[in-house]
């Protein structure tokens, strides 16, 4: 296995540093399974269309399920050329991506996943502090994403604030961990791949994640109840990040293809993710899962936490060396509010209309001759 990883590293590095007009196969990395909505369209179909529209100049071999890079190594592996394009969850690298984690922890500011997918994309492509952070890590940011809303999926009844106290909740870290502690629960930080085992063995009482996990991670087999308190949504990091050497070797025409396809999949993915959630919840309910609305005390606790936690975000960002985090958050909120308004002007079930909005309002405004070249 060690030798295999070394071979992957060498091949990836050679590919990244040999980016000429010669057609080549490049590595695309995602740690979710191929059937997940974040992989099916944004990686598998994306790779197919990119190869077709670049006449084979840019052909990605898609590695899924962590088969090329495990979650915590995806940022370094992308930088080092093991992959030329990769998904990365920012929570795994808070020291390397303090700005990305600062805005990622604003998950409770607006819990509309469509708004946050488009807003996080614009921020990552245009904010000076974010761009400096990507460059420092050898990454060219391609586009963002957002999961659907996070709910508590439990192997016991969790309906009220009193029910939550003392429960062991799987949380993705950051603000979610602080919220668990705020309401008297016990946060457990494990990757999504371990949620099933935790619920099955009883080391977890609830998994806090998007409800498509009932199907994509088979949680429906071990979950008996779900609470619909909207505990934010996850968008830290990037859905598409590119190795810097690879990006610089692309022609402007091929970069435009990538931009256009990311704009399309940004929209397509959001609709597919929500469709997967609805399908998974319906199937789990038919299998006996109970769905509870949060009581007033639980809702009030979340609202108080959101109001109080922003100062913690700012303090943590300063400790990690972020300059002017207050200004960065203000800029991010402005972008979020802009997309909240923009998305009211379009049919949010029309993939092509949403993709066109992403193109005109984000990607078409970037200069292909300079973007990602510093």
Automatic annotation (TrEMBL):
InterPro entries cross-referenced by the UniProt entry: DctP_fam, TRAP_DctP_sf
Pfam families: DctP
Keyword set, alphabetical order: Signal
Gene3D superfamilies the UniProt entry points to: Bacterial extracellular solute-binding protein, family 7 (3.40.190.170)
UniProt entry tagged with the keyword Signal: yes
Domain of life: Bacteria
CDD domains, A to Z: PBP2_TRAP_DctP_like_1
Keyword S-adenosyl-L-methionine: no
NCBIfam families, alphabetized: TRAP_S1 (NF037995)
PANTHER family on file: BLL6794 PROTEIN (PTHR33376:SF15), PTHR33376
Protein name (record): C4-dicarboxylate ABC transporter
Organism: Maritalea porphyrae
